[in-house]
Amino acid sequence: MRDWLSGIRRDFHRNPELSQEENRTADEIERRLKELRIETRRTGTAVVGMIRGGKPGKTVALRADIDALPIREETGAKYASRREGVMHACGHDVHAAILLGAARWFSERSAELPGNVKLLFQPAEETVGGAESMIRDGCLENPRVDFVLGLHVMPYLDAGKVELKKGTLNGSSATLNISIRGKSAHGAYPEAGVDAVLISAHVVTALHALVSRYVSPLDSAVLTIGTISGGTRTNILADEVVLGATLRTVDDRVRDVLVDRARSVVEGVSASLGGSGVLDVSYGYVALINDNACVDVLAAAAEEVLGPGSVVWKEKPSMGVEDFSFFLRERPGAFYHLGCGKSSRGICAPLHSSKFDIDETCLALGVAMQAAAALRFLEG
Ligand SMILES: [Zn+2]
Ligand SMILES: [Zn+2]
User: Fold this and answer.
1) How far is the CA of 245 from the centre of ligand 2 (A)?
2) How far is the CA of 247 from the centre of ligand 1 (A)?
3) Distance from residue 91's CA to the centre of ligand 1 (Å)
4) Among all residues, which ones are annotated catalytic?
5) Which of 124, 199, 222, 289 is the most exposed place for a label (fewest CB within 10 A)?
6) CA 226, CA 274: separation in Å to the nearest integer?
7) What is the pLDDT of residues 120-168, one digit of tens each?
8) In sequence order, which residues have a C-beta less than 8 Å from that of residue 16 and are 6 or more positions away?
9) pLDDT of 380 higher than 90
10) What's the gap between Cα 76 and its chain centre?
11) Starting at the edge strand that comes first in sequence, how are the strands of the sheet with 240-249 ordered?
């Protein structure tokens, strides 16, 4: 399959599309699946493929995200992006190609297959989280999915290796939008107004006490206040200051405690100084928590198809987020990292960078991993 996979991946790579605009990509996926005589269902830019086994059994879902990023490619590769300012810098071209490879492998063997394989081609991983809308749309039903598997390429690992972790692999995120209201007045007569800049300074300081004082030192959380703006002139008391922050935790309960506390701080500190504060939270992705037994299945599959010593165990979770977590909230399964680098040839630029590229041997290895793992689930 190597050349076939490389051709598909390079085609996606040349034609990257931003989140929720993956029309050409979804068309191409659908066309390829139909070519393999696989039934498909399309909703927007999401594509679900269904391979029904010749024998009864369970249903395993394999997921690939398909969107690209607003980055100008600087790899100089002959298959570099043809779309100015858009690039597959997170390897989702690779994920889509690998899933098409697994689709081909299973479709050619469907008669002997003890169960079904569902293929989830998911849009908008990088922005709004296409996983949630696919789940709402019923991608885990009819037939009901028993297990879900997903992977992400990782350039810090050489092709031929996989990185696994039991339990929590990725944290959860929340965006905090804070608005502090005061009352404007001349800077020489502060007693006539309420200074929103001063209140915001106290709010920032108090918010930075939350992780230190309301999270156990054995748990993890980070709060970063990345934006602040307000005021019009040096000699006018600002009547409004707006702040923006991101909150990352590995445990959703810790996240909820911190959001509650942050709200008390914003409202309480502002009120105590004569102003008012409002905290608006938009919840991002939930924490990604692997099923440990499913991770054992992945480890066994890796030993089988990639060879002994191919598994690297990840010690700590990442505070980065991944919306595969929503599938894992619904069904048991696991997410893992597939090596795509080749350090000896300098292929190791990080994800989301303009120089990100892969060693294409990871394509066939990814197909082998997905196929071997899915088969183990189907065979019980
Ligand atoms: Zn990404
Ligand atoms: Zn990604």
Assistant:
1) 22
2) 18
3) 8
4) 285, 360
5) 222
6) 25
7) 999 999 999 999 999 999 999 999 999 999 999 999 999 999 999 999 9
8) 68, 69, 81, 83, 86, 87, 88, 93
9) no
10) 27
11) 221-230, 240-249, 172-181, 276-283
